[in-house]
From TrEMBL:
EC number(s) recorded for this UniProt protein: 3.6.3.27
Secretion signal, residue range per the UniProt entry: none
PANTHER family named among the record's database cross-references: ABC TRANSPORTER I FAMILY MEMBER 17
Top-level class of the enzyme under EC nomenclature: hydrolase
Family annotation (NCBIfam families): 3a0107s01c2
InterPro entries xref list: AAA+_ATPase, ABC_transporter-like_ATP-bd, ABC_transporter-like_CS, P-loop_NTPase, PstB-like
Organism placement in taxonomy: Bacteria, Bacillati, Bacillota, Tissierellia, Tissierellales
One BP annotation, GO: phosphate ion transmembrane transport
The species this protein was found in: Urinicoccus massiliensis
Primary gene name: pstB3
CDD domains assigned to the protein according to its UniProt record, in alphabetical order: ABC_PstB_phosphate_transporter
Stated name of the protein: Phosphate import ATP-binding protein PstB 3
């Protein structure tokens, strides 16, 4: 799977928030979007799973392709969201049990068989490095977990339906350093199976987790390159 954005402009009403964004996002890599607050990182990320569809005030121009298929003209939003999972800045688990948070999307996708649900919930929790911590309390409320656990639960919930891409919008900015490093470790293990795009305002984090980095400034990508290359140039 590969994303290709070509000359993407985005307007909130009359205000232009993205200008001529061109970006290739490659399979099994971590791509970091960095830059100061308000420069369009989150706005760009939300294009990739058609989250702006919900906002009638948004107008998008240009092309975004997922494996050569235009995500707006040739795919429906349900297909895009099935293939592209997302995790937000603040952990936002449902007020349900740990199990049901992860099973939710699977049930929506029509999976009813209890054994299959159990297996897939377990697999997603393992992939999110959470299984060992929660396997004895799957029926407890997700709201009783620590912030870091809640964020890994949100990752498990996003992974359960089997997306190819995982988008993460500043996933550690509400977390303590230990929880942050757990999420950063996850980026490394998950990229073997998923394409990951992470928004961060922390250059050190981009350096630790990403293969490629795109610098945003005032709605434009001013530079994109291999992370190691970018950070080795003075
Ligand atoms: P970043 O993620 O880099 O902090 P954002 O993508 O959130 O930046 O915001 C880019 C610009 O678009 C900012 O000026 C912000 O205020 C504006 N913006 C973001 N969301 C909306 C919205 N829903 N409606 C109008 N303007 C928005
Ligand atoms: P985050 O900090 O999580 O990236 P955003 O910057 O996107 O959050 O802003 C949080 C919410 O406020 C979002 O729903 C966003 O669309 C909205 N928002 C941000 N800036 C504006 C703005 N200038 N006008 C209207 N809504 C905005």
């Amino acid at each position: 799977m590969k994303f290709e954005a070509r000359d993407v402009d985005l307007y909130y009403g009359s205000k232009q928030a993205l200008k001529k964004i061109n970006m290739d996002i490659e399979e099994k890599e971590v791509t970091a979007l960095i830059g100061p607050s308000g420069c369009g990182k989150s706005t760009f990320l939300k294009i990739l799973n058609r989250l702006h569809d919900l906002n009638p005030n948004v107008r998008i121009e240009g092309d975004v392709k997922l494996d050569g298929k235009d995500i707006f003209a040739e795919m429906d939003p349900i297909e895009v969201r099935r293939r592209v999972g997302m995790v937000f800045q603040s952990p936002n688990p449902f007020a349900k049990s740990i199990y049901n948070n992860v099973a939710y999307g699977l049930k929506l996708a029509g999976i009813k068989n209890k054994t299959e649900l159990d297996d897939r919930v377990k697999k997603a929790l393992e992939d999110a490095a959470l299984w060992d911590e929660v396997k004895d309390r799957l029926n407890s409320s997700a709201l009783g977990m620590s912030g870091g656990q809640q964020q890994r639960l949100c990752i498990a919930r996003a992974l359960a339906p089997g997306p190819e891409v995982l988008l993460m919008d500043e996933p550690t900015s509400a977390l303590d350093p230990i929880s942050t490093s757990k999420i950063e470790d996850l980026c490394h293990s998950l990229k073997q199976h998923y394409t990951i795009v992470i928004v961060t305002h922390n250059m050190q984090q981009a350096l630790r987790v990403s293969d490629k980095t795109a610098f945003f400034l005032l709605g434009e990508v001013i530079e994109m390159n291999e992370t190691q290359e970018l950070f080795s140039n003075p």
